Amino acid sequence: MKLLELLKDGNFEKVYIFDDTVDIKNGYIGDLLSEIMRNAPAESVWLTHQTHPNIIAVASIVEINTIIVPEGFEFESETIKKAKENNINLLKSKCNIFKAAGIIYTKLKEE
Amino acid sequence: MTSESNKLLEKLSQFFSNIKIGEIMTSPAIVVTPETSIKQVKNIMKIKKISGLPVVKRGLKLTGIISIEDIIKVLENGKLEDSVKKWMTKNVKVLYEENTLSDFMSISQKYKFGRYPVINNENKVIGIITKYDVISWLFERLGTMYIHDDRRKKILEHEEYTSRLTGELLDNKKISFDFDIDYTEIQRIGTGATKLKSFLKKKGIDEKLIRKVSISTYEAEANVVIHSESYGKIFCWDFEDSIRLLIKDYGKGIENVEIAMQEGFSTASEEVRSQGFGAGMGLPNMKRFSDKMTIISEVGKGVIIEMLFYK
């Protein structure tokens, strides 16, 4: 699935888009950075409540191409800056993390 | 002082000829007033082990100098009860604190006195300078230089780190990548790991291997920043058959490595935990993603983590 697919029906809002045609093959949810590194697959979206700049380093190490925060969360400005430097897409969801994950999961399954 | 040592002093002084007298002099100087008795001066010299004293009036204004040579004259021709005023040398050669070491050299060659009072623009005695002051200052300087050199030599001589994993030497000259870990900002965690990742990518190393190496580096880097309270270093050797990592810090060390290795064990603060660190998975992750790993640590002596990844 292309990232564009997620942006279609208004559930996700762009914060910073490096490339909306990147392939999303998988996803992962979590707030513990070591756990993310241990288990998150490459070419995936990462749903998290963490908004600080370190998530960019984690994402680029494990090749997560898109980070999504749920409703009520905002990326720190330094995080957005780092995302630009490291070519990571940032999205905000209009739903809570459970619903957001459900939407993405369904879309990936439908493929 | 012999002419040999004078020559040496002259030679050494050339290197420091622009050094200000104010830096070398003994300050404050021990002084006496013109009314002091020769007997008292003799006692001061004996107790303080000095050979001459500036003679000052009110406000430390220089009026003369009384030296061991003058005392000898008193012993030959005068009385110990006489006042300093009667026997002191009135025509005093002085130096100013802004004068340089080369000024001292030329004045002392010209007049051959043992000591020169150092005065400021108001003729106030602020110190005294002798050849002894110059020599001890020079030795101190040369001593520092020597220590620096010695330290450098030590580092240079220990060019390799002996791998605790394989017993072979890891040559400093063959380091493929190195990075200084800035421990002052938690936000900087991962800078070294991401740099190493792009370095390895450029070298065309297998993606899966890069992932393992960079995750392990990230964890080690995070530990340095969060726990060590010291700066650290990342070294990476890219060998034909393996990638070797060495992450060092100079901080507080690990009290019990066995406990620290346990999954879920962490000493991280709440604040750090709230950011998703300190889950107690750092060391276990390194162990998991590397093929071989070892930790060398002692309380107060920093941590060295060595990891090996087969290609």
Automatic annotation (TrEMBL), chain A:
SUPFAM superfamilies per record: HprK N-terminal domain-like
Protein name from the UniProt record: Iron-sulfur binding hydrogenase
Native source species: Marinitoga aeolica
Tree of life domain: Bacteria
Higher taxonomy: Bacteria, Thermotogati, Thermotogota, Thermotogae, Petrotogales
TrEMBL record, chain B:
Source organism per UniProt: Marinitoga aeolica
Protein name, as recorded: CBS domain-containing protein
PROSITE patterns membership: CBS
Transmembrane regions: none
PANTHER family: CBS DOMAIN-CONTAINING PROTEIN, CBS DOMAIN-CONTAINING PROTEIN CBSX3, MITOCHONDRIAL
Coiled-coil regions listed in the entry: none
Pfam families (UniProt xref): CBS, HATPase_c_2
Keyword terms, alphabetized: CBS domain
Superkingdom, natural source: Bacteria
Domain CBS as annotated: residue spans: 25-83, 88-144
